[in-house]
Design a protein that fits this description.
With about 650 residues, the chain is an alpha/beta fold. Strands 3-4-6-10-11-12-13-14 form an eight-stranded parallel beta barrel, surrounded by six helices. The protein binds flavin mononucleotide. Flavin mononucleotide binds next to β4 and α13.
């Protein structure tokens, strides 16, 4: 049968300058700190970008390359374009991308007044610590100097020099970062640019630095070499950049550059730039669509994009010419290839949980909740097929069991996965109805499909007991039997009034108008938010003084903001009983407090099925216990441990 793409617009090529994009899907910049102290890419970093190219993206954007490592670092570890020693590994990186048919792009940046000064690096010794921005000001207790004309000229020259180095290294194009609150954005935004000279005041003046940088880069790279400009079409703060300004900016630069990359949000707008799970897919496309009406060059859009149908519609309807994805290509770097090959049922959709961003911040590592290869792309190249195909039995169809089954089968083992219930997904099952968790259900569906393709035998309604294992005679047994909800030993917990968070999916019709959520961890908070959005009057009751301490530091603030608007929060209350009236609690002074409720939603945590897991130990020559039955945790732990258990087989 002849090939016919299901998403013809998304798969269509596009000429830009002297380059051709093989399709309309691009890998957006994502910086991770696996760089050397002097700003060179490690083999791990290069392998990360190479995976994106192998996965079929038309453009792979390497981020963030700093044009001024002394004064312009946005984070601790960046590519250092002022270090001549970076050329060789930049070249290797560009080659690694290009050899798979993608265009190698690199994002150039300067952090301006948000710069970090690296006092550790040897070459920095004796250099005065200076942070430059549009005007003299204090940022995070650090004095910032307004840039003089001389410093502006030097900085513009550094951008051009950096771009020239990237071109020499073999990059096909460059991206100028003019958004997200960094230097060029600081000049564009009236909030930060209070200058009174030719770089401040009017819109043309605020855009002058950007234009000088674009012109200087064009002089270095020559005509036909695509320059992409990434900018924020709006910021939320009063007096900040508005969409009308962004339209004017786009019109002003369109004859000098090749792609307008429309992002959103200023420095404090993390949840706008990086839409959380609570935002609609493609929530920032409207900005690109408006800009596209006013310009004649290709426009790229970004933010919460991973559904082929939606991306096809964006291109087909002319809202944008290119769709860029960051987190979607962490969850599944092969997304573009799968779209082109009409294999969209195999795409793992990003759940926008922010584990990637949070771990970058907390541990300086690169991880993804759904894709355990992220951060291990280099090692993954050398994982051999199993020397001997083993008969592997997996007990439990939660995320750990699913991932382990997939990886083991891909390595050549003969895998059978048994699930006691009639649905796969383990603890994810209870989130089936929650709109902002829709991607979790899709994850389970995709994993089932992948298991099928990998030849895993899946047995539903099948409990793995010690007798079952002995009869089955596996070479290896993976125990991934999960956890049960913790039942607090309180009077009334067995009443009809109590619904457990884990039962939300099938007992929702029993939930009354007023709900007391017992337990303010992440699960309690998210369930509370869901019920409030459905019109219930929700009170979250927590013994500690904080809610959701188990949520990661990127997800938590966004969740808290939404909760503050929609639920009542009672912290420092210890539940003592469930009664006809609701949830009885004791406050810090020992006083009894009644939270009136028709339903008590119990979300006090999970308890590993240790006894069950222990009963299966010693029943096969190799036994590995993974996931929630070792310690209840987030999906990322389950997939990580499932994957690594399979590598050990
Ligand atoms: C882990 C991570 C690192 C990022 N690093 C950068 C960066 O270095 N430069 C940049 O311009 N944007 C960066 N971004 C923002 C993305 O390019 C993108 O604009 C944003 O994540 C929204 O797209 P998404 O919903 O497809 O993730 C990063 C995003 C993530 C998740």
């Amino acid at each position: 049968m002849s090939y016919k793409p299901e998403y013809p617009n998304l798969c269509n090529f596009l000429h830009v300058g002297k380059c051709t994009l093989r399709n309309r899907m691009a890998s957006a910049p994502m910086g991770f700190p696996d760089l050397t102290e002097d700003g060179c890419l490690t083999d791990g970093a290069i392998a990360f970008y190479e995976e994106r190219a192998k996965g079929g993206a038309a453009i792979v954007t390497v981020s963030e390359a700093c044009v001024d490592y002394t004064h312009g670092k946005s984070h601790g570890r960046l590519i250092n374009l002022t270090n001549p020693g970076v050329l060789a590994n930049l070249t290797n990186c560009a080659r690694a991308i290009k050899r798979h048919g993608a265009l190698a792009n690199i994002e150039l940046n300067h952090a301006g007044m948000l710069s970090e000064f690296d006092v550790v690096a040897e070459e920095r010794k004796g250099v005065e610590e200076v942070h430059y921005g549009p005007v003299d000001c204090v940022v995070n207790n650090t004095q910032v100097k307004g840039m003089t004309k001389e410093i502006i000229d030097q900085t513009v020259a550094l951008w051009a020099k950096g771009a020239a180095l990237c071109k020499r290294a073999g990059f096909d194009m460059v991206m100028i970062h003019a958004g997200h609150g960094w230097l060029i954005h600081q000049f564009l935004s009236p909030l930060t640019n209070k200058r009174t000279d030719e770089y401040g005041g009017s819109f043309e003046n605020r855009a002058r630095l950007a234009l000088e940088i674009i012109d200087a880069i064009r002089r270095e790279v020559g005509p036909g070499f695509p320059i992409e400009v990434r900018f924020s079409a709006m910021e939320t703060a009063e007096g900040g950049i508005k969409l009308e300004d962004a339209v004017e900016f786009a019109k002003l630069i369109q004859d000098k550059v090749d792609i307008l990359h429309v992002s959103a949000g200023g420095e404090p707008d993390f949840g706008i730039t990086h839409p959380p799970m609570f935002a609609e897919p493609g929530c920032n496309v409207k900005y690109a669509a408006e800009i596209k009406k006013h310009v004649h060059i290709p426009v790229a859009t970004v933010g919460a994009l991973n559904e082929p149908e939606l991306m096809e519609e964006i291109i087909a309807s002319g809202k944008a010419d290119i769709v860029c994805m960051a987190r979607a290509l962490l969850a599944d770097p092969e997304l573009p290839k799968k779209v082109e090959q009409n294999r969209t049922d195999e795409i793992l959709r990003c759940i926008r949980c922010f584990v990637c961003h949070a771990e970058r911040m907390l541990t300086q590592t690169r991880v993804c909740a759904l894709n355990p290869v992220i951060g291990r792309e280099y090692e993954a190249k050398f994982i051999p097929k199993a020397a001997k195909s083993k008969k592997v039995l997996i007990a439990g169809g939660g995320p750990g069991g699913l991932q382990c089954a997939l990886t083991a089968a891909q390595r050549g083992h003969d895998v059978t996965l048994c699930e006691k219930s009639d649905i796969l997904g383990g603890s994810l099952k209870c989130e089936t109805n929650v709109p902002f968790k829709a991607a979790f259900s899709k994850y389970v569906k995709t994993m089932s499909r992948r298991l099928e393709l990998a030849g895993v035998k899946v047995c539903m309604n099948t409990e793995v007991t010690p007798e079952f294992v002995r009869e089955f005679e596996p070479d290896a047994l993976i125990v991934a039997v999960g956890a049960d909800p913790l039942v607090l030993p309180l009077p009334g917990m067995d009443s009809e009034k109590v619904v457990f968070g884990t039962e939300l999916e099938y007992k929702e019709d029993r939930i009354g108008k007023t709900v007391a959520v017992l337990g303010g961890g992440m699960v309690g908070c998210e369930s509370g938010l869901y019920l409030a959005e459905k019109g219930h009057d929700v009170t979250i009751v927590e013994m500690l003084d904080v809610l959701a301490p188990d949520a990661n530091p990127r997800h938590r603030p966004i969740l808290m903001k939404l909760l503050e608007k929609s639920v009542a929060i009672k912290t420092g209350l210890k539940a003592s009983a469930v009664t006809e009236e609701g949830l009885v609690c004791i406050d810090k002074d020992g006083k009894e407090v009644l939270i009136r409720a028709d339903t008590v939603l119990a979300a006090s945590g999970m308890k590993s099925r240790t006894e069950l897991a222990d009963s299966l130990r010693g029943t096969a020559p190799e036994v590995r216990v993974i996931g929630d039955c070792v310690q209840p945790g987030i999906i990322r732990n389950a997939t990580f441990n499932g994957y690594h258990a399979a590598l050990d087989l």
